[in-house]
Structures are given as C-alpha cells and as structure tokens.
Amino acid sequence: MFGYEEGAFTGAKKGGKKGLFEEANEGTIFLDEIGEIPNSTQTKLLRVLQEKEIVRVGGTKPKNIDVRIITATNIDLEEAIEKGRFRADLYYRLNVLPILIPPLRLRKGDIYDLSIFFIKKFNQQYGRNVRDITSEAVEKLKKYDWPGNVRELDNFIGRAIINMKANDTAIQTNHLPKLEKFLETGDNNDAQRENREDISMGLNSIVEKAEKEHIAKVMTECGNNKTKAAKHMNISLRCLYYKLERYDLE
Predict the structure, then answer these.
(1) In a domain, 195, yes or no
(2) What DSSP letter does each residue of 31-55 carry, written as one string?
(3) Does the residue 196 lie in any domain?
(4) Residue, of 156 and 203, whose pLDDT is higher
(5) 3-class DSSP state for residue 187?
(6) What does the angle CA 160 – CA 100 – CA 41 come to, to the nearest 5 degrees?
C-alpha cells in the first residue's frame, strides 16, 4: 500500500515503486476487509489519516497525499476493539460516515436484481447470452439463508450458468446447484431461527438490538419529534441524530 524505495530489499525495482496510496492521490482508495489488517499496518494507516502523508518502505522522507478512503468489513469492529484486535483511534478516524448493509437473508427482495447483475458479469466471462432468471428459481433462492451473503450468491449464479445448455437463455430451477440448508417455511421455523440468532449474537449486538428497538419505540411515542425524544431518553439531540442514522431509523 505504501510503495518502496530503490534498494529497500533484494529484488526491489530501480527507482522504487509507488504504493496504492500514491497511485490514488487526489482520488479514492477502497480497502476491503479492513478488520483483518495487522496492527502494524493499522498504525501506518492511522498516520495516513492523521498526517495525510506516507513513507515508502526503506525510505525516510514523507510524501504528502490527498486520498478519500472507503473501507468495508464484515466483522464487528467495536467488538474487535474490545478484544484488542483493532485500534480504537483508527476506528474513529474511519467511522465518519458509516453505511450499514444488512445481510442478504434480511433483504431477499434484492436477490433478483443481484442475480441479473451477476448474470451479466458471467456472460462476459463465459461468453454466454443468458438474459434472465425465472421467478420460480428466484423464489427457490429466497428460501435459503445465504450465510455467505452476496458473495455466495455470486458463486451460486456462476455455477448455475455452468449447468445450462448453450442455447438456454434463462436460469431455471433445474439449473440451480443443490442447496443443503433450505429453511422450512412457517412461523414456528421463523421463531426458532430468531431464537438461534439471539443466542449466537455477541453482547454488543444484543445491546445494539435493544437500543435500536427502544429508540424506535420512543420516536413513535413522541410523534417523531426528535427534540422531545432526545429529552425523554436523556441524551443530546446530536447523539440522537447519530443513532437514528446508524440504525437507519430516519
């Protein structure tokens, strides 16, 4: 990410090499799975955010950069902070405008549009001309809980296209790979699944769930009057705005 200077290590290119941050200068850099980076890299990234400069490997002279950083993670960073796996100061530097994306099992209405997106992608990769996925196939996909989220659906659509004949233009149920974890339908099963999820949730997640439900209830009782609701919960109006945005309650 930070590049290196000439002679920094055996095999280093003559003249050194720009890192990703230098390449993205005056632009945007996307860092995926930010929760998995080691502590040493977290320290360097914090310097980038605070000082707006980087130092190449093997170098001593700072280089000024102006980069917008977008990060993504599928782990609870606040829980990682408590366990000492993620720096709190880095978290608060990155957590300027958080966007919380629910797991795919909670937004199954997106499955059709996502499937079409992946179909177009695999058409280019495989040289195919698949144009659609049948409603029956989509309904079957909606019965699955998708523990691997969107990436699992991506893989699933690719496998379905491989199962199709050359002249097939729509994914049908017989093209879908076998799903081992189909959920039974019915209210009883939904309740059992919710109980299993509650048991498996970390303490932070349980607290956040209760906080979200309480805020939603108070907002309703106060007629969505934010000033009144903040006073009722004994928190600042600014704090309430933050929590409403965080929990997508606006």
Answers:
(1) no
(2) ESSGGGS-HHHHHHHHHHHHHSEE-
(3) no
(4) 156
(5) helix
(6) 95
Amino acid at 155: N
Torsion of CA 129, 135, 141, 143, to 10 degrees: 180
Amino acid in position 66: D
pLDDT at 91 over 80: yes
Tell me how many domains the chain contains: 3
171 to each of 49, 85, 168, how far by Cα in Å?
A: 46, 43, 8
Domain residue limits at 212: 202-246
pLDDT in tens, 229-238: 888 887 888 7
Is residue 153 within 8 Å of residue 190, measured between CB atoms?
A: no
User: Looking at the structure, do residues 73 and 112 belong to the same domain, yes or no?
Assistant: no
User: Residue 207 pLDDT > 70, yes or no?
Assistant: no
Q: Are 74 and 112 members of one domain?
A: no
